[in-house]
Structure prediction request, 1276 residues.
Amino acid sequence: MSTPVVQSFRYIGKKRRTKEDPRFVTGHGRFVADIALPGMKHLALVTSPHAAARIRAIRTGHALALAGVHYVLTGAELCAATEPLLIGVDAPKVLRYPLAHEVVRYSGEWVAAVVADSRALAEDATEKIEVDYEPTEYVLDPEKAIEPGATLVHPLHGSNVLYRRKFVWGPVEEDFARAEHRLAFRVRWGRSATVPIETFGVAAQWDPGRQLLDVWASIQMPKYPDQTARALRLPGNAVRVHFDVDVGGSFGVKRGIKHTVLVGYLAKKLGMPVRLIEDRLENMRGGDMHGPDRIFDMQAAFDSDGTIRSLKIRALDDVGAYAGRSPLQLGKPVGAIIGPYQIHSVEYEPISVLTNKTAQEAVRGFGQSPTNYALESAIDHVAYHLGMDRIALRKKNFIRKDQFPYLIPSGTTYDSGDYHTVLDKALAAADYPALVAARDAARKAGRLAGIGIASCLEPSGANSSFEPLFNPKNDTTTWMDSCLVRVDLSGSITGVMNTSSAGQGHETLVATVLGEVLERDPDTIRVVHADSLTALPSNSPVGSRMAIMLGGAAAGAAQKIKAALLAIAAHNLKAELSGLVYRDGGVHLRGDPKRSLSWAQLVEIAQRKFHLLPPGLEPGLQAKFVWEVPTGGGLPTADGRIQMYPCFSFEAHVVLVEIDPATGQAKLLRYVCGHDCGVMISPDIVHGMTYGGIAHGIGAALYEKFAYSDNGQLESQSFMDYLIPSALEVPEIAIVDHCTPSPLTTFGQKGSGEAGYLGAPAAIAGAINDALAPLGASIAELPMTPLAIWTRIDAARAGLKRSTP
Amino acid sequence: MSEKLYPVSIEVNGERHEAQVTARLTLVDFLRDMLRLTGTHAGCEHGICGACSVLLDGEPVRSCLMYAVQTDGRSLTTIEGLAQPDGTPGALQDAFCETHATQCGYCTPGMIIAAHALLETNPAPGEQEIREAIGGNLCRCTGYQQIVDAIKLAAAKRAGSSM
Amino acid sequence: MKAVPFEYARPATLAEACELLAAHGPEAKLIAGGQSLVPMMAMRLARPAWLIDISRLAELQCIAAPAGAPADQDGQFAVGAGVRQCVMERDPLARASLPLMARALRWVGQVQTRNRGTIGGSIVHGDVSAEIALVACVLDAMLELRDSLGVSEIPAREFFLAPMITSIAPEQCLTEIRFPVWRNLGGNALRGCAFDEVSVRHGDFALVSACAQVMLDADGRCLRAEIGIGGAAPVPLALPELGAQLVGARLDAQAISAAADAAVDLIDPEGDLHASADYRRQLARVLVGRVLRAAKEDAMSKAGVAAA
Prediction:
């Protein structure tokens, strides 16, 4: 791995052990299931066996008769007592509550909740609850769901389309007419998700004396305390979410708002603490944490020299029976809709569709990875069509490093990048000529082998302007984050972050930044999580935003502290600010270092010696910094152009794959990822998330699928059938770094929490298709399981008509 | 009518515990809920993810696939028991910190148990042997790379050589 | 995912275990390793009212050296049903006497499940793709079953009836599996074996598995062969007729290919989430070919002869 050459830092960018690791390696993490509240009761769910049905009756008598069972809650009660959960698009008739009300809309939907002394007893009781269902018609195919006459998932909404719009940015028809070539194809991103090893859990306790609901949860969600309070019809300051709970992985999905409303309602009603820890079956079937399930119909217009002039993208996404934020996953890619390429115009038609399946939730990248898969497939199609090298074609169309900041047709400006260099670095690290030789040798020996290249953007910073873009009634433009820094009487530094973490190393991030700005050792800096009553505003770790937003806020707060120290020094050393030097927390006179005040002395003045404080400076030593996302604050234009995320990281994957032609089994033989996220604040953390993102991508590309039977049953509802890659499926991965700093951030950092996942499926699909190409076979659907691959090999060999990719 | 309770006497991390348990109480739930040793985690409860791994008489097993009653009279080691006698992390745990082999921390205890068991029987494992030894421990955060590096580092340190 | 309530007993003797089975009948399940049973109980698919723990019964732990058998008969290697898979994997005598089992065990579950799972438990569970069950069928092992009334025997090849269903009665306990150890057919005979399977990930249930054991003369001619396929029929399937057809032939590419094709006609695979019936047929063909090739190479390697 090469070290990027940037401004020299003391702590930023250096190898450093994280603050979080020590507690995890000794088993001293504090996850929600580790918290035992005195008198706590446990929840289990009764779930629907039907894809669609009317609920005629629920009989709870036998369940309530069991010893240790305290309560059975049904939808009728809950829906009357709470507000429906929010949906990201304008669809007020698509109502969603934590429990089904009168109707179930997917198999696995939660119908009733049992509260008992133990989880085991609660499960026993769920078996005693009798529900009379009247099965009704259901629809599972999203393309059928949008046809006239389709069964409606939410009849009051009038259709199964949650959102649909055709955006036209630039002279698309003209570009298509004038181009020398056109092609069209379809690819399909199968339904999968990032499925963390820890399921979602939430515990709540109502304090009647304080009229306060305490909540501990495995949560990664913007506006979670607010939405919880709203749904429970409580004032916002009647809910206290404890953000210091360790979250066992989330990668977007842990938006357990329905779990929380359920548990919060019961805790308040019953006057006892209540906890729900999803078991794996509840999680997979009814946790509402499935990911994008998307059909792309792509058209490309291009010239013989490889210039890609225009794209038409139709993206049909099956969100399942309910939606929270999920339809917006079609909106975020607007901000990187042409990828890293200079494409003149683009038409984008997102369609969000309801079916009788488990509800979808935000997944790592928020729709960008499926979009990158579609974009890179288009590039490869163009290359094959022209007989042009896939690398040369990409380089020809790449935005050049001298063209930044680069405005794309949909209205977003990319901040900086050097795509050619990153790709070249990846190719060099992979020893590309040797890779080609290895592939060709394998082919000569009768094996199927292929190389995949993917060059993809990682939008970062989460200026979530897809919200107003997709819902004009929602004119939210504030995407802020914050940090508070305190220096105590002893001179110790504490940073306070205002949201939860799920393994991204935020404590290390903040300590490193504070240490850098204040020139104090990060190992001496403590970072804590506020609770939602004491927290400054935060939009939580989504959209690869924290390095930018939390890092920037920490730097901003530290700068204020530093300014205060300098002001104290100026006042006490009787010098102008310009005559002072700040070093390692102390201040001395430029040219006369003996005239100085140490960190300890400055702290003492700030904390205890008001008489030595400069007039107007507040006593104590603390600062807060709250700020809006760079480039944020804008609303979309009438034709849907909008500045979306501010900073654009970039990844170039080079993959060598071999396929056993007899069995369809694919093996990743070589994996190289070139990665540019600007300045890395903590390289180990960035690399770790990149490796992990690639592993997620391998899962989505080759193994993972929430598969449904023809009667709407989730067939892959446990880890026996939902196949997560192990250390034997994920190969050794080489990451090669590059750094084009962002001009928009404090240190030049860009976000990278979604790294690897955004490009890996595209690269692996490219490799598999390169391997199949000599047979005249191809595969245009993820996951590319051995069965799927072999089916295409078999068809090609049988000389059957090649299926449209 | 409440469930029948069974007496068990189980040694955990060198300490003997006497308890009364229902037959259906799994070993992972016994460790977490009754002994409050919450370092061992439940990820799937059907024996696939490995987050619940513990050492039973020194061998790594899935504690979600055992009932506490089955371990009466046996000896267990959990992640809490892998520290040094004075409480500082062991060499393997230190290696995990050095290579940043953990992110969310949820799979980590089980992963360390599996790695520990490997190094006890095979002090100088190759890459493939390492991956096979942790092949039954799923991680969604790390992509396994830094975990493999940590195990190699720990093995090298054990051997007294420097990396 | 908590099991339904049950009562638990850990009898000190096999006889006691059988008494308990007789008393509780279909309401009781035996538990040894539990690696297959406990997940089913967690999902509430298995709901025994009684769990009888036989994992510590010394009577089920034997790994018996082959008795001195007459030269014209196969020897016998007896394995107690409670022998853990990891123990079988490591035992030098077991590896030497039953090399096919040694090869199969590498594919069984994961390291951690092999530390608890037993040879007998895997057989009684009756999964169509279970490797140990397939080896038992292919080697034509004899299963010993006990209940409170006495002992009975059944060939492994007759034990499996349908997916997850064996002929074991609720009151019976599988106690021992007696594997034939092939006698040497002529002084220079070479024995070889191989096990292979295709699964989606390492350690997953096999989509299809296959194994073969062959005995060749010094010229590479087949003296004896047994082949089997797992995961491609309602039961683990030994194909003795196929093995018989190979006797007398050299296992050249043509013979192997013909055998593989013939094998496909003998199976009846189902389709599921991970594999269609056609795909299973393909895998069966491929794997039979591979294990015959590998078994032959294994045999030839013992004579120091390069494989043809």
